[in-house]
Design a protein that fits this description.
The chain is α/β, with parallel strands linked by helices. It has helices at residues 2-8, 47-52, 90-106, and strands spanning 15-19, 33-39, 62-66.
Length: 110
């Protein structure tokens, strides 16, 4: 959320990746590019706020969901209280997220 605030106010930033997050400020008309990666079993992300923020994402945002992942799988800090049960390992989730980020960046044209 804070990275989106920063990106919105800095012309040197052309795009942003959201990992189980969403913009708090309106990026829709910013001209920036975005990738949003979520995980199917994430029970930490406030899904209502995420859905409510849909109009704040840039219009051409790429949305990707990791099947079997959870919120904790985006990091290396162990299981987070209240999170859903992952059916894939954190390493697998992080690998899939990294592959999606690289693919998005390779397709990125400025």
């Amino acid at each position: 959320v804070m990275a989106a605030e920063y990106a919105n106010g800095d012309d040197r930033v052309d795009g942003i990746v959201f990992l189980a997050s969403y913009p708090n400020s309106d990026l829709a008309g910013s001209g920036k590019q975005a990738l949003s990666i979520t995980a199917r079993n994430d029970e930490v992300l406030d899904w209502d706020k995420y859905k409510a923020a849909a109009s704040k994402f840039p219009s051409d945002t790429v949305f990707y969901e990791i099947e079997g992942g959870n919120h904790s799988g985006f990091g290396s800090y162990g299981h987070q209280s209240g999170d859903g049960q992952a059916t894939i390992s954190p390493a697998q989730q992080q690998k899939e997220a990294a592959e999606q980020i690289v693919a998005w960046m390779k397709g990125w044209t400025i």
